[in-house]
TrEMBL record:
It comes from the Eukaryota. Pfam families: Methyltransf_21. This is Methyltransferase FkbM domain-containing protein. Residues 49-184 form the Methyltransferase FkbM domain.
Length: 262
């Protein structure tokens, strides 16, 4: 199982299913080789992929990918929602710049068009849909054992989501590998700090500055990696290659009359 959390336009889904099209995506491809085995040995029909992306601008692209991959019997399910440490709705803002989409109004510099989108508690979803899944006896499981792998790029919400995954037990018990990044090292978005988050009580807020975020995330990763009760491996790098994809969308196969839809 691959969970693409914060999928954007779905590049990492394509890096996994169609690696031959993306020779420069070395970070992601090496991560997938470590998680799922060599590219030439694994079968796409053995992998279930779920993406989470709240930006409505990308819905149609993900639906095209779904139809194309499903026509090849590759199991891809896009979930048009954001993830959080609770379920509900949240206001996102279209920023009109490289940031694209943010939960923080203060991050807007060019424009700030609000849109309310659904969010789901990721820990609950993984418990319900993945943790207790029935693993088939057939397939290519001799190459690699069944595993759950996650890429996370959720634009500063990792400071809420990762602790929730850990405290719920989902992270260490059900996720074998995580690829992603904490956003404190990116100088190009240093202007976004400090970040303000919703607290437990109504109207309660808490603030996280960049230096504290770096210290917390560094020490948290070190503790998790040395904990004998945690099975999760962390690869805290993001693959920003092919930011705009650059490859044509896959063709939707039509088995009834051997035609296809571009």
């Amino acid at each position: 199982v691959f969970l693409d959390v914060g999928s954007n336009i779905g590049n990492h889904v394509r890096f996994l299913f169609e690696p031959q099209l993306y020779p420069a995506a070395k970070i992601a491809r090496n991560f997938f080789k470590e998680a799922f085995g060599p590219e030439l040995d694994r079968l796409n029909t053995d992998i279930c992929v779920f993406s989470f992306e709240p930006n409505p601008d990308h819905y149609s692209r993900h639906e095209h990918l779904r139809r194309a991959y499903n026509s090849l019997n590759w199991r891809y399910t896009p979930i048009h929602a954001g993830v959080a440490h609770h379920t509900g709705n949240i206001t996102f803002y279209h920023t009109g710049d490289d940031l694209g989409f943010t939960t923080k109004k203060s991050n807007c510099r060019k424009e700030c068009r609000p849109e309310q989108v659904p969010i789901i508690r990721l820990a609950d979803w993984i418990k319900r849909e993945v943790a207790d899944r029935r693993i088939p006896l057939t397939g290519n499981n001799t190459i690699m054992p069944p595993r759950v792998v996650m890429k996370m790029d959720v634009e500063f919400m990792e400071y809420e989501i990762l602790p929730d995954l850990m405290l719920s037990g989902v992270l260490c018990n059900n996720i074998h590998a995580v690829m992603g990044e904490f956003h404190h090292d990116l100088n190009m978005i240093a202007y976004l700090w400090p970040m303000t988050y919703q607290g437990q009580g109504e109207g309660s807020l808490w603030t996280l500055d960049r230096g504290t975020a770096k210290q917390i995330s560094t020490e948290w990763l070190r503790m998790m990696e040395h904990n004998p009760n945690c099975n999760t491996k962390f690869f805290m790098k993001d693959d920003e290659s092919y930011k705009n994809d650059g490859q044509p969308l896959p063709i939707i196969q039509m088995p009834s009359n051997n035609t296809s839809i571009p």
